[in-house]
Amino acid sequence: MRIRPSEITPEPVYRSRREFLAGIAGLGAAAAFAQPTSAEQVINVTLIERLQYQHNARYSTTEAANSLADITGYNNFYEFGTGKDDPARNAGSLRPRPWSVVVDGECEGKGRYTLEDLMKPHALEERIYRLRCVEAWSMVIPWVGFPLGDLVKRLKPTSRAKFVEFTTLMDPKQMPGQRSDVLDWPYVEALRMDEAMNPLAILAVGLYGKVLPNQNGAPLRLVVPWKYGFKNIKSIVRIRFTESMPATTWALSAPREYGFYANVNPEVDHPRWSQKRERRIGSDSFLSRQPTVKFNGYAADVASLYSGMDLARNF
Amino acid sequence: MLKMNANLATRWIAKPLVFLLCLLPAGWLLAGLADLTGFAHWPAATLGANPVEKIQDTLGIWGLRLLLATLAVTPVREVLGWPRLLLFRRMLGLYAFFYISMHFLFYLFVDQSLDWRELLKDIVKRPYITVGFTALLLLTPLAVTSTKRAMRRMGRRWQRLHRLIYPAAILGCTHFYWQVKADIREPLIYVLVLAVLLGWRLYRHRRKASRGRAEQDARHYQQSARAGLPVEPLPE
Description:
The structure holds two protein chains of two kinds.
Chain A: H1 11-33, H2 38-42, E1 54-55, H3 68-73, H4 86-90, E2 100-105, E3 111-114, H5 115-119, E4 125-132, E5 137-147, H6 148-155, E6 163-168, E7 188-192, H7 193-197, E8 202-207, E9 210-211, E10 221-223, E11 236-242, H8 249-253, E12 277-280, E13 290-291, H9 299-302
Parallel strand pairs in A: 1-4, 2-11, 5-12
Antiparallel strand pairs in A: 2-3, 4-5, 5-8, 6-7, 6-11, 8-9, 8-10, 12-13
Chain B: H1 2-36, H2 51-80, H3 89-111, H4 116-125, H5 127-144, H6 148-154, H7 156-162, H8 165-179, H9 185-226
Helix pairs in contact in B: 1-2, 1-3, 2-3, 2-8, 2-9, 3-5, 4-5, 5-8, 6-7, 8-9
């Protein structure tokens, strides 16, 4: 059968239709859930949709969490600009609903999943994790998400699958930072299979009990708290199981400076700055740096993944 | 009379104005600090989630901007024919030194919490800190000899010494370029501006040199002709 050119919906038309539909969906959600408390109205972001979750104390730190203003106002998300306050300013153009994730590669669960289908079987948990950026600052963030390992099991990787690769949305219209080739877009990150199965690795869909704000990687992002922040890929649209180690964005951009593993490690300096200490954002002692702990303090849970490995070489 | 008025206007109006303008970034940081410490409420001057980084970056970038502004005085003055611009050069240079030394002192006392061992390691191990620190070292004697008295006493040596601003500016731009992670667009702008400012000087120097050479040649040919000697070109 031949399709005449006139039968194909031109891009601007279907785009505007989609935007219209997404707008309606958004309005409905906003009307149903918009009851910000007075505390939330003070800060410039209002998290609208509340999530159902259980707090997971086993995997949560008791350290004081950063304010929502810090967590949503100081971000590295180059898809929206390279300044720390760019994401908060520019991420409004991202449309996180409707959202779907393509699963492919070495697994049985190949296909396109809507975000709802992807999340449905998994109970959400709150995990208060430390986040250590490779730039030597850190925060404490109350994520809401589900264990990545549970999803991986559900997707039934084949025996050939050795790595899980994640890809961020590629759409310069929604992500204006992608118009300049600061990095090789789309952003790609990956984990070794045993890292992905570690119970600390989660896919986050929220923070502070509510749906993720755009600048924090809405609607679905990876959180691996024993690794530097850049491993925590945001706004994921693709999950692929591979046999060989995927090329990841920062490691491609500056292979001497960023490795595949990117485990937090005070003993291995970044070539341009020391990793021995970190500045905790928003703390009372923000003037001084605190010592960085190996694996960001999660050694008891993850150190065994790397036994026998030279972490200075596999940085 | 008109000329006198223009000089007075420069001295009593334009100079104080530029003086205050150069203080603005420092004033903004002070307002931010006041807001941060709860001393006053100026949310517009917020230093954000990482005040230490914000202060450090602001001091550094204004140091570099004013250093380039200092280097722009001579070219702009000659190209646009504004001789009085020279009256601003020392002030701009001293402000550049002020911001750059504050940038360093802030790094030393706050960012490194005066940890001398870490500091020395940083200066030796991190190339971008090595070049930044070297730039500050090069600028220090220039600030010290910026008085009229030093200028008079040193004569030609003053001019030669103050050419240290060229390597200092190159190192300053390198310092900026080397410390960004991936987005080199902003430091590239500074590198380009510096290239234009230094390129203009190189061009002018060459032209002066070649004009001097042409005059020399002409004089030589004239003298040769007058003396009735065979006309041979001067050795290169």
